[in-house]
Amino acid sequence: MFWTIPTIMTWTRIVAIPLIIGVFYLPIAPEMANLVATVMFVVFAATDWLDGFLARRLNQTSAFGAFLDPVADKFLVCASLLVLVHLNRADVFVALIIIGREIAISALREWMAQIGASRSVAVHMIGKLKTVMQMVAIPFLLYDGVVFGQIHTGRWGFWLIWIAAVLTVWSMVYYLQKAIPEIRARAK
Q: By the 8 A CB rule, do 51 and 7 touch?
C-alpha cells in the first residue's frame, strides 16, 4: 500500500520542507514570508493527525505508512528548527537537543527492532506529547509577530520550544529506560 491517500498525505510533509524554507528566500516582505511559512507549516503538520485518522478509517494502514509517518514528522520539525536557528528565532542548543534526540531514538528503535525487542521502545504518550508541543511551538516562532494586538508569538514560541526541548529529553530518558533491560541482557 505504497500510494494510499494517507501515505500521500504523509509524503506531503516531506515535500513541504523545501517550500517552507523557500518562502524565506522569496523577494517578499518578511512579515508575508512569516505568515506564508506559518500557514504552510500548520497545514502540513495537520496532515500528521489526518493521515493516521484516514489510514484507520479507510483501512489503509501499512508497514510502509507506519515507517514513513514518524520520519516525515522528524524531517518537518528538524528542517523547520534549522530555519528558525538561521533566522535567530530558536536557540541552537534547543535544535541540538531535539535533533539529537530524534537521531538517538531512531537509532535505538532500529537496533531494538534488529534484536526483536521493538515493543520495549514502542511509541508512548510522552513521545506524542513531545511532538505536539514541537508542532505548536514552531508556528509561533515562524510567525514571529503580534496577534490580536497583544500576543507576541516570538516570546510565546521561545517558551514553548524550550518546553518541547524538556519533553524531548524526558521522552528520550523514558525510551532509554525501557531499552536498558534489553541492552543489559545483550551485553552479557
A: yes
**Those residues with Cβ within 8 angstroms of residue 167's Cβ, 6 or more apart along the chain or in another chain:** 126, 129, 130, 133
Taking only the tens place, the pLDDT of each residue in 50-77 is 888 888 898 888 888 888 888 999 999 9
Handedness of CA 102, 170, 40, 2 (dihedral sign): positive
Long-range contacts of 95-100 (CB under 8 A, 24+ apart): 97/165, 97/168, 97/169, 98/134, 98/164, 98/165, 98/168
Give residue-wise pLDDT tens across range 84-121: 999 999 999 999 999 999 999 989 888 888 887 777 77
CATH number of 5-187: 1.20.120.1760
Going from N- to C-terminal start, the domains of the chain cover 5-187
DSSP 124: -
